[in-house]
Write a structure and sequence with these properties.
Elements lengths: L1 H5 L26 E4 L11 E4 L6 E6 L10 E6 L6 E7 L2 H7 L4 E8 L5 E7 L12 E8 L7 E9 L9 E7 L9 E12 L12 H9 L2 E3 L15 E8 L5 E6 L9 E5 L7 E4 L2 E4 L2 E4 L3 E6 L5 E11 L3
Antiparallel strand pairs: 1-3, 2-5, 3-4, 4-11, 5-10, 6-9, 6-11, 7-8, 7-10, 12-20, 13-20, 14-19, 15-20, 16-17, 16-20, 18-19
Length: about 325
């Protein structure tokens, strides 16, 4: 795993955010959406969001039109019935990247567009190996008054983390606040173009990583068998053909899954039948429950206890090992 990452650490101008241009949305499809109120990882790969209490569902998804500069996609966050009092967006930096940043001056830039929020708080926390937004040491914080005129704007902070600061783990968060009234609105916020550089800010690019590398970095944390633009749980008549040939009555089957990218740990693997049903496998007689799953960092096996004249088995799957 160290070799996998270290060979990509050669360019000093690299962006330390993974998927900073929001090009990959494996969970919801690059043109889809994902409804949630509590789960932090719901939209663009490697980014997590948390919303304060609000009325109605929160929708997170990709926007492929109307983005700033050369960015093709952005996270869109919307509340259907009323404004959300605050939204936090953040990313925990790869641990090996954090080691590379130890003692260095850092600069941060991001783009946003909102018609509601009037204040943004930028925080850098350490350590940040948490799935929630609980307490963690804050090593930097700055509050900005922002324009809520539904126009794309950016915030740049040059060399905000002084040289010599000890960094063992790092998470960068931006919290948007509505400090005035709570009116009804559909789109709450859009954001894209996140970059974290050593020293001064550079022009945004992948900085030494090509698109395949960027997707591999995302897949270390989350991978799915669906096509990249297809949402999880979507009905898919093709599925993944993993066995063809009859199972005799009473015998089960072991259905292998090989990941494209080795995971950073043992993931949670969920199978989906071709009708999108979670935890089931499609057979010629309908769908059946996957009895258990054996999981490693490179592969998994979906185990079936009972079979009866099954001439094929098909399913899709996801593997999740987010921080």
């Amino acid at each position: 795993m160290t070799d996998f990452i270290s060979k990509r650490l050669e360019n000093i101008d690299r962006n330390y955010f993974i998927n900073g241009d929001m090009r990959y949305f494996q969970r919801c499809g690059t043109n889809g959406s994902f409804n949630t109120q509590t789960a932090p990882y719901t939209s663009a790969d490697r980014f997590k969001t948390f919303a304060s209490s609000f009325v109605g569902p929160l929708t997170e998804g990709a926007q492929t039109v109307g983005n700033p500069e050369k960015f093709e996609r952005s996270i869109q966050i919307a509340g259907e019935n009323a404004a959300i009092s605050s939204i936090t967006v953040g990313q925990a930096i790869e641990s090996v990247f954090a080691k590379d940043l130890d003692g260095e001056e850092l600069s941060f830039k991001f783009w946003f567009k909102t018609a509601i929020y009037q204040q943004a708080t930028v925080q850098v926390l350490e350590p940040s190996l948490q799935d929630n937004y609980g307490a963690a040491p804050v090593i930097y914080q700055q509050i900005f008054n922002i324009e809520n005129d539904d126009t794309w704007r950016n915030i740049s902070i040059e060399q905000f983390l002084p040289a010599g600061t000890t960094v063992r783990g790092i998470e960068v968060r931006v919290t948007f606040f509505d400090v005035a009234s709570f009116g009804s609105n559909v789109e709450q916020l859009r954001t894209t173009g996140w970059q974290l550089n050593k020293g001064k800010l550079k022009e945004f690019s992948l900085f030494g990583r090509d698109e395949a590398d960027e997707l591999d970095y995302c897949r270390r944390y989350f991978e799915k068998s669906y096509d990249i633009d297809v949402s999880l749980g979507a009905s898919d008549a093709d599925g993944q053909m993993v066995h063809q040939g009859a199972f005799s009555g009473g015998n089960g089957g072991n259905l292998p899954v090989n990941f494209k990218t080795r995971k950073r740990g043992k993931p949670v693997v969920i199978p989906y039948a071709t009708d999108g049903t979670t935890g089931r496998v499609t057979v010629n007689a309908g769908t059946v429950v996957a009895s258990s799953i054996s999981i490693g960092e490179n592969s998994a096996t979906v185990n079936m206890d009972i079979g009866f004249n099954w001439f094929f088995m098909q399913f899709q799957w996801s593997a999740d090992v987010e921080i």
